[in-house]
Amino acid sequence: PFFKEYLPENLREFPILEAKLNANENPYGPSPMALEALKKSAAGGNRYAWKELFQLVDKIAEFEGVAPKNIMMGPGSSDLLEKTAMVLFMNGGNVVSADPAYMSLIRVAEAAGGTWKPVPLKNDWSHDLKAMEEAIDSETKLVYICNPNNPTGTTTDAAELLDFCSRISERVPVFVDEAYLWFLEDGTEQSMVSLINEGKDVIIARTFSKIHGMAGLRVGYAIAQETTLDKIQKITRAGMGISYPSVFAAMGAMDDTEFLESSRRQNMACREYVYESLTQMGLEYVPSHTSFLIFPIEMEGKDFLKKMTDLKVGVRAFNFMNRNWCRVSMGTMDEMKLFTAALGQVLT
Ligand code: PLP
Tell me, what's the ipTM? Predict the structure, then answer.
């Protein structure tokens, strides 16, 4: 594995940023309807959200077109990725995924006793499904696919992925992380959720942290077969970590389609602006389908982060495919202007 991520050395001392573009948050959220629901429900915080969590589960099940028994809730999808990894890898085994990929599930799988079998993305940045299939062996406990992928912001053809998940899940469960799905214009068509009603052993993760703008409110869910969810929930009670007001905020957010549409639009406008600015600076970039994008930098990641942070702009730096990369999240247009100005200064 050659994937390397650079993190700020001390998060506590992380300076006040003027443009916080390092965690793929939505600068516009929470939505007006989510905020309203949050305010109204705050006083209910003396109660556990048992009944209310079921209301949210029912609402999600209806939205996804699956049964409530196929839904597992968590305080953010990180919780569900990590719990899945803990349960599946406590007796070893390997996880097959792309490289680079979003590392949260993989790191916990390794910590629990498993190993990572990375398969490089193809030159067009899509998953190398053929090579991933070949990488599966008798020790493979899970295939992890992030689509659209983080940190690259790129997608894999939905029809090919559907065929892959459908066939492979007969041998080994496939986890599809769809955190950024709703930034696609045809997200519903690109989802793998239809496989649930076909009885396939796929686990799909979704989050309210991204397009819904609720990263700090912590709500996410997984959609999977009941037997798979039972295995995980026997060991951990997945929904217990979600606060009473967050349950209501999530229900409000689901209804606020106007906010979701405006987030998607503004995100696209920022992406176009960054593409143009990078081109003007003579820089390449990887066209993105998400709320962030990557581009190669001719500078060591740690130095680059330090220089950008000194200018009060927070981004991320990675090294993969023998190159250094900057990943920048889409903030407000004003933040993106601070970013391009800082980048111009750092690179010249
Ligand atoms: N999956 C992907 C691909 C992500 O990029 C993130 C967050 O950045 C997560 C999952 C976890 O987000 P959360 O725990 O806020 O749902």
Answer: 0.99
